[in-house]
Every structure is written in structure tokens, then in C-alpha cells.
Amino acid sequence: MKSVECESETDIESNKQEGGNQSNTSQTKSLLLSDEWKPYLRPRTIVKEWLLKLRCCFGAVCGLEWYGFAALGILTAFLSFLMDFSVLKLLKAHQWLYMKLDNNSLLQFLCWTLYPVCLCVVGSTFSHNICPYSTGSGIPEVRTILVGFEMPHYLSVTHLFTKYVGLICTLAAGSTIFLGKVGPFVHLSTMVGAYLSNLCSLIQTKHRDNASREMLVVAAGVGVASCFGAPISGVLFSVEVMSSHFALRQYVPCFLSAACGGLTFRLFSMWSGDEETLQVLFKTNFPTAIPFYPLEILLFAFLGLLCGAVSCCYLYLHRTVQQFTKTNSVLKKMLTTEKGLYAGMVAFLLACVTFPHFAGQYMASKYTMKQLLTSLMDSRQWGSQTHNASVQLEPEPWFEWISTGNPFYFSLTFFLLMKMWMLVLACTLPVPAGYFMPVFVYGAALGRLVGDGAAHMFSLTSINPGGYALAGAAAYSGAVTHTLSPALLAVEVTGQYSHAVPALVATLLANGVARSRHRPSFYDALSIGKRLPHLPSLKKVFPQLPSTPVGQVLGGKSVQLQKAAGPAEVQDAVDSSTETQIPVVDSHESQILLGFVLRSELLMFLRHSKNETIEKHLDEVCCIHPISVLLSPHNTIQEAYSILSLVGAQTLFVADGGRLVGLLTWPEMKRILEDLTKEI
Amino acid sequence: MKSVECESETDIESNKQEGGNQSNTSQTKSLLLSDEWKPYLRPRTIVKEWLLKLRCCFGAVCGLEWYGFAALGILTAFLSFLMDFSVLKLLKAHQWLYMKLDNNSLLQFLCWTLYPVCLCVVGSTFSHNICPYSTGSGIPEVRTILVGFEMPHYLSVTHLFTKYVGLICTLAAGSTIFLGKVGPFVHLSTMVGAYLSNLCSLIQTKHRDNASREMLVVAAGVGVASCFGAPISGVLFSVEVMSSHFALRQYVPCFLSAACGGLTFRLFSMWSGDEETLQVLFKTNFPTAIPFYPLEILLFAFLGLLCGAVSCCYLYLHRTVQQFTKTNSVLKKMLTTEKGLYAGMVAFLLACVTFPHFAGQYMASKYTMKQLLTSLMDSRQWGSQTHNASVQLEPEPWFEWISTGNPFYFSLTFFLLMKMWMLVLACTLPVPAGYFMPVFVYGAALGRLVGDGAAHMFSLTSINPGGYALAGAAAYSGAVTHTLSPALLAVEVTGQYSHAVPALVATLLANGVARSRHRPSFYDALSIGKRLPHLPSLKKVFPQLPSTPVGQVLGGKSVQLQKAAGPAEVQDAVDSSTETQIPVVDSHESQILLGFVLRSELLMFLRHSKNETIEKHLDEVCCIHPISVLLSPHNTIQEAYSILSLVGAQTLFVADGGRLVGLLTWPEMKRILEDLTKEI
């Protein structure tokens, strides 16, 4: 563990921005207290006094930001529950309608196809018109924001609303479209986090510099946790996907928020569903006495390798189709202007294929995502019980898989083959949608096939195929996203701790296969497709990119001031630069870098110089701040990127032998990355 | 998540040390291939060829370091199993002897007291004589090593052997001494890791710079995993304790190694114990239908707060006693020269108190640590079943707790009060010992008291006190070590996933209480007591330390060369400095820093200059390497420490306005920290 003291970031940032923030804080305070021109002065004063007292009370227990973290978890969980609730109602409505039309196949076909088509068209058009960025998963954008790049339109409240409504439409289209909610929910919780962080900074007396950034980091962790009520793996998943370094300072806030989120989500589920206690999301019935035999570890390892290999196929297909939609002129035009039409067409195609009187009967298309997962993770062997399934009064939870009379391995194989291309196609849909859950279900089906297949082939009656489905789900989703935490996630959503070690083994091996030869993960491919300035993804495609020296790519001459600059030069600098930190050199000839001055101080200097008669020099009035970390032009882009994200949203100065060469900021870094990836 | 690209470290290091390592690699190769002077040339050649082919085969699948990681896990787990096995035999021998002497109280007393006394004296004297550093936990030293400081004697094979044998003695003394194995095992696995990393670097063709460091990081994670067969929480615990930043590059190796370790540990346990399948370490019998009612969350939260408060008392007592043993002249002398005597005296005192015919009967002292934990985590309520306990044929697993006829809350309270000071006393024992497990058991007792007490007081028959014991164990051990992962650890060692959320809530609240007011954790206190140069611990006691500017504390003038230096000046510099990187300035007058030269190049320069007649300047022969990261004297110690540990074991140059001020290396940093903490 490279043990870098996390507080250093805070220190560096706070040193630099001290000047700017004091005025900010007092401004915040005045916003809260002194609106004397508004009506009802007395009642307002009383309410305000009470609010201030309340703030003091809360602040006495712990910092106000901790309430923010807890609120974030609770809010996100509430949003998640509300979404699940609405989606369930919409799905039930569809099922009810389909059942009512039982006599007429044509009407059934129309009901089956038009319902998801309408939802997709509505979702796509709605999100396109209100907030065009809201389609897709959102995880690539969130991790770019967390590195340090500013993308304010990705965190607005409009965006939150659009994504929320659009996602409900997508999920209500059900297993026909076969998309999930994890990715968008990470994005949604980040937006909630950004909003809460603004609220916190309004209330807090003590301004903390990186508070908003910290809240975003926490929010990314909460997303998954409130999606499944799985706090531990939620945080770990977001750590793995989002960052390449994790500061342990953010560990406790993350887990606090995730625990609040997970608990709230489960409590809501309990209250709404008349359950007696807190339950896991996907109930299972594994035998507890002997979860698995030691030799089965080998079969789990084989499953892991298989999942890794299949994930490579899937990722390759996904990249190819993604590339095709970008290059094919018809599709490109359609996806730019006629998103609704495209969404409708794809949804119609998918719905036709899954129609239960057509191919759908061989792939259990009547099941929702949740039913699919529950049926796949059932601990009983399908093979051994097919014969008497029709005799029983209540159908088995996997009845749909064998309803045609074909053996289970036929329907599972058919499901796997069909869903592969259907999922790749669904990924091109311009709607807000998550791509984790379908992959998780796909992996469960793969695991089920291996587990039940082995039991059937070698007549192993004591094997539990549900365990293989669990391990397969973990391994396949881990391989697609290049993460290990799905192993824990699978345990958390089923509550089957006994299978943690096999799931971990399978996930490790699947990751080994998927990560070999520096293949990009699913999210990396999305990042690259969207040309986001995310270096860890970009370097999978442009391997020489990180080792390019900064000196080669640094932009033109930056604005600089000499030590003895007068008001005229300062005015020039203020006019021509928008940076908050402007470098000061010994003289324009020597170029020896002395430090930097803050823009605010320069403005003050200009104001003072107007009132005074004697012209003063810059170094007589302004404080020249020392530079803490200096780069050389020989530093690689990778190093500059790392240091920039370590010290936060700050300017880095590049100097060669003490002489100023240029500035490096996030916008500059973005330009560099865009230039280089265009060039190559 | 501050997303700093981890590869940067590698890049920086590899850039700097390229020159030095090429020669290293070829040297390694020659070691393996060309020992022509040894006998049996032909057989050796054949064996070597086969070995080389084998290496190629292995290397074709994945890098050889991955086999190293897997081997590390398996080896550590084997060591752990072997230790458990030996300890079990020794404990059984003691029990057998004690039972045989059932008629004679005096002999029983002697057996009860002298057995642990002998073991402690042997363990203490053995470790003192062979390797005096091997006493204590080892975690503070390991985390200092992981930051970047070199402490080679802490990773030697002698140390490994001494600690292993000493630890067996300590554990065999059983619940009388009440110490565990987690801490030393982390240290042991780090030593195994260091050894394996040397082995790997001998075999590998491609030399990787930070391979040994990476292996140590992984090893720290494996320690806990192989101790309990708990791979996931093991890695997380070591991440939390060891570092303040975690590079995700090390995530997969850590989990691979931990999964191998956990699996091997459980497989060994299975094979040795005739169990049918892989089992968790501490078996529990929680009801699965309704693990807990939602309102119980409040009781769990109360338990968390209570655990936090008690942990503060414990940590305060521990610090006070630690200070006392340092300042009291008699104890100080005894602990320096007569470790065996001191260990014997303390062990005798502890054994007297726990003697079952004396106070021991009220605190279930006949139970081993494992039995204690199993009895505390039993799901049945003790209170409701005390009446018919004597009627049953086989005693309940908690029989010892109520054998005196006193109600359970009396014995639990007595246990908690007595063990508090006994544990603090045991912590002063100069033997290799872990301090995590006793705290875990103590927390379980606290949880049991709350759970069973609440059930007894409010007559709640459906409550499961075992769940409270689980949550209490997690919360208390989390509070003492300032970590959250015990919540997951408690789940992993019992397999009771249903209680993950309550345990997490309790642990979060306990951590909140324990961390308030910047109190040092248990390991922090050990670090401070041993005056280790570990900044995150030191700053808990010296809050102004991290913000001291580097310029104030930097040592005297460093050795430097000017660009135009001749052989005489270079010879001087080589003689007077031991650094591998020597700074080059423009001229001694201007002091403008240009870069650095490697020591190896200077030696080459000197060799060449002897052969040539015309005197050449430094810059004509040697390559002056550019400096990647430059510090200013205004940087704080915290910042310097962070950057130093980010870039690995490298030299940092400090310059002010382009002029060289000094060098900063780990030994220099150690000196600075020692000076400052002495001063204040």
C-alpha cells in the first residue's frame, strides 16, 4: 500500500485558497442572516434563531457534514425504493394486460411489443429533449468528474430529474429490453450528493475546501449500496470502478452513508412488502449443512475461466457495435436527430424476439429480471425434477425455463446465445440505463448451465447448482467491469455467505482472463467511445500516451508577471488570463520562477494603485506565495495527471532548471489528452 | 476518491533507476546460469535446462510474480494451520493434566499456574535472546516499513523463526494470558513475503522495480486472511490499518493471495478435523427466518456507542500503563535485562487470578479463546435456560459461565471488569503476541451482556443475543483499532451474513466515539511508544508536527557537484556522500539546480578519467538526469512525507527559486521526525 498521507491534499488546497475562501464564508453567512428587505421580519428572525440553535445542537455532536452523509444515504435509498415501487407497478400492469388478452394472439403480440416500445420511445425522447447528456450509464462521466475534471451539467438537478424519469421507463420495459439500474443510480446519487454538498456549504459556518469533492466520492459509493441494500460491496465496487487510488480518510464517510442507504432501502422494502424483518433482495434456499464439497472448487475455477472467456467475446462485440454506430452514416444520423425512432425500432425488434409465442418461450421471457435471478439461483437441480414438474400444483420457480418440454440445457444455451447479441444491441439504446444487472443475470445463467450441466452429466445429486449461478454471476459481471467486488455483492444480495470463497475464486480467475493483454473493461470502452479525458481508459487504446513528456505537449506561453511589475502589466495580466493563480518570475529575461500571486490579490492591487500617487511594484504590495510542487518538462503525462489529481483542482507550474515553462490545469490537461488522442 | 494513477510510481521509479537495474538483472541471470567451477556440470546443466523450460511454461500463462502471490497465500496459511495445530495439542495437554489432578487442589493450582508461566518465560527468553525485536504485535513496525522506511532486521528469516516459536508459546498459554495471533501473523506473513520476493527476483528474467514492495503490501493483507480463513475482510483490515492511501493496482494481487490463503487454511482445517466440507472458524447456530427485528437496530446502535466508550477507557488505561513501564525505573530495568523474570511474574499473577477454584470460576476461565467466542455467540438466551441447565445430560456450550449458580450477568460483568486490567497488564508482556483477538472476545462479551440483558430485563423471548455478541465483537475491536473491517470479519468468521448491517452500524458508531478528539488508536499508541517514524501516529500526539515547513528542519549542506566539475571534485563527492543520486548545480555560486547524476555513473566517470590524459568535465561525460518532482522549503513535513512515500524509495530535491537547498530521503526524514518529537 503506497501510504500517502491523505491530509496533504487538504493542506495544499487550504494553503492555496485561504484568501479566496474567507470572503466566501462571510458571504454565505450574510445570505442566511441579513435579508432585511423581505417581509415578515419578526417571524423570520424567530425561525432563523431557532434554526441557528438547532445547527449549534447538531454541530455539538459531530460535524454537520456527517449529517449530510447520512442524509445522502437515506435520500438515495428513498429514491431507489420509489423507483423500484413504480417500476413494479408498471411491470404488473403489463403482465395483467397480457394475461387478460390470453385468447387473442395478435392482441397479445401488440401488447407485448408496443408496451416496451412506447416506454423506450418516451424515455428516449424525454431525456433527449430535456437533458441530452442523460442517456447511458453515467459511470464513465462520474469517474471523470471524480478525477478532477469539471463537468457541471452532469450534476444539475434537471439532469437528476430527467435521468430518474427516463430510468423508470427503461426499467419498466422489463426483461424484454433487459437493462438495469446500477450505473444510472451511481450517477443519480452523485447528483444528489452535489446538491446536498451545496446545501451543506450554505449551512456550515466552517468552510471546508474539499467538502464537495468528498461528498461526490461518498455519493458514488452510496449508489450501488442503495440499489441492492448491499452497503459493503457497494462501497468497494465504486472504489474499484471509480479510482485508481483510494484515500482512507473517505472510508468512514463512505461506509456511514452506505450503511444508512442500505438500511433505509431494506426498511422501506420491509414496510411496503409486509415482510416481518429486513431481508436480502434476492431470496435463496441454499442448504446450510454442506454448502459445497472441496473438490467443487475446481469446477468453480473452471466456471471462472469460462466466464472470463465469454466476457471477452461480449466486450469485443460491444466495442465493434459501438464503433459501427459511430461510423455508419445512417445510424450516426439517426442517433443524433431521431433518437426516439431508433429506440422504438430496436425495442420493437427485441420485443418481437422475446414474444412468448415465438422464440421467447425458449428463454423464459415472461420472467422479470428479479424472477430470472431467483429462478437461476434456486438450489434444486432442474434436471432431476423436470419429470414431475407438471404434476405439482404450484409451478416451480423455474417453470418457464422448461415449459416447452425441452431439456433445461437447451433453453439455457438458447438464452445465452440470444441474449448475447440482444444485450449488445440494447446497449446502443439512447436511454438512461445500467449495464451491470443484465450482465449479472447473464453470468448467473452461465453458472447455472455449468452447475446443472455437471450435475446432469456426472449424475451428482448432491451438487447445488444455485451456488454455481451465484459464482457465475459474480465472475461474469466482475470480468466485464474488471472488478472483484461482485463476488461480495453476490453474497450480499443473496445472504449466502457460504459461497463467498468459491465466488471469489471464480471472480479472480475471470478477471485474470478478462484483463489479459490490457483489454479495456466495459466502462473503459464507454469512456473511449465518448472521448472522455480519462487517462486510465485512454491508455488501454493509446499505450504510448502516458509516457509522453509534458514539455512536448504543453500549450503556448502562459501569462506571467515579473517581480517588479507595475499596475499596467498587472492590468494586462488580469485581462488576458482567467487563472486564479498567476506565476511571478524574477524578470522576463531570466524567467526564474519565484512563486505565484492570487488573482484576487491582483485586483486588490489594481484598486489600491488607482488611489495612490506613487506607483508601487507588485512585490511591495502582494504576497508572492511559494510553489509547493513543481513539475519539470520531462515529467510524463501520467505523472502530471497523478499529481494534478492528488493536489485537487489546482494549478501546477512546470519549470526547467528554475525557469518557468508553463502552467498545467485540468482544462489544459483535457486539451492535451484530446489533442493527443485525435492525433494518433 | 482521489484518483491518482498508481502506475506513476512505477514510472517515476523506473525512469530513475533504469541505469542501476540493467546491471542487476544481468547479474541475477549469471547467478543462475554460469557457476562453471562447481562439480557435476552435466547433470546441473540438464536440471537447469529443465528448470528454465519450466519457467518459460509458467511464464507463458502469467507473470511469475502471480505464482509468488499464490505461494505466499498458501505458505502463510500452512504456517497458520501448523501453529493452530501445535497450540491445540499444547492446550489439550494442559487440560488433560489439570483434569487428572482433580483430587488435589494444590497440584491443580501448580499445574494451572506453572504451565503458562513456563511457556511465557520460555517464549520471552527465547525471543529476547535470538531476536530482541520479535516481541509484541509487529503491526506498527510493518506499517512503518510499508510507508517506505527500511528496517531490514524486521524482515529476516531468523526473526520469522523466533516470532513463530515465541507466538506458539504465547498462544499455548491460552485464555489465562488471553492474547491472540493476528498482529504477529501479519508480521510473519510480511517476512514470508520478503523472503519470497527475494526468491522471485532471482528467478525472474524481467526485473520489476517495486516488486518487493508490492509483495510486502500483499503479504500484509494475507496475514489476517490466513489467520481466520477470511479473505475479504483480511485484505480490508490490512488496508485500513496499514495505509492511508491504497493503490488499486495492488487490489487483485492482494485478493488472489488472500483467497489462496483463506482456501488453504480452511482445506487444512477440514482435512485435519475430519469435517465433511469447508467450514467457518467459529460455528454459530443463528435462526435464519428472522435474524432480527427492525427496532433492534436501535439496540445495536446503543451497543456501538457503549463499545466506543469502553474502548476509550481501555485505550486510556493501556497508554497509562505503557507510559508507567517506560518511566518507572524498576520496571524499566526489569524489562530491559530480565524479560523472562518479568514475563513469569505477570503470567503467574494472571494465572492466580484465573485459577478456577478462585476468581476464575466467575469468568469461565476454563474455556479456550475459541470456546469463549463460541459460547458468547450462541443464539439461545442464557437467562431463560439457566434453570434446566443442570438437568440436561450434555452441558450447554455456555455451562462454565453459570456453573457457580450466579446469574449470567454477574459472571459477564465480572469477566468484563477483570479482563480489562488483566488485558492491559498482558499487553506489557515481552512476548510475541497479538492484541486483536482478546479485544474481539471482550467485545463479544460486552455484546452478550447487552443482548442477553435486554432480553432478560424486557422479557423479549425472541431476541437473539448471539447477534449482539457478534456486533459487539465487531464494534469493540473496530473501536480499539480504529477500523471498520471487523464488521465484515465478524461476518466472515461466523458465516452469519444476516447480521452484517447491524454489525456495520454498531462498528460505525463505536468508531465515531473512539476517533473523536483525535485519540490515537491502539496501534498508534504502540507506534508512539516505540518512537517509530510513522507520521500518521505521531501527529496524534504532536499536532503541530505535520505543518512544520521542511526548510526549517532540513539538515546541513548536502553534497553537490557543479556542471563543470572535474575528477577531483567528483572524487570528493563520491567519498563524502553515500546517496545514489547526487545533485548537479550550474555553479557553486549560482546554486541553480540542473538535475542529478547517478553514483554509478560518477564511478564510471572516475574510472574513465584515470585512463585519459585530457581532463573532461562532468557534463561532457555523464548524463544529467532531469528532476521530476521538486519540493520547496515552504512545503510542510506532511506534504514531503506524502510525496516521498508516493514516489517510493527515492531522493527528493528541495529547491528555492531554482536554487538547491537540500536533499530529502527516508533516513533524513527519520532523523527529522526523531529530532522534532524529541524536541517538543
From TrEMBL, chains A, B:
It is found in: Membrane. GO terms for molecular function: voltage-gated chloride channel activity. It holds the Pfam family Voltage_CLC. GO terms for cellular component: chloride channel complex; plasma membrane. The keyword RNA-binding does not apply. Residues 17-27 have a biased composition (Polar residues). InterPro entries: CBS_dom_sf, Cl-channel_core, Cl_channel_volt-gated, ClC. This is Chloride channel protein. Its main location: membrane. The keyword Transcription does not apply. It comes from the Eukaryota. Coiled coil: none annotated. Residues 1-12 have a biased composition (Acidic residues). Residues 1-27 are annotated as: Disordered. It is a multi-pass membrane protein. Keywords: CBS domain, Chloride, Chloride channel, Ion channel, Ion transport, Membrane, Repeat, Transmembrane, Transmembrane helix, Transport.
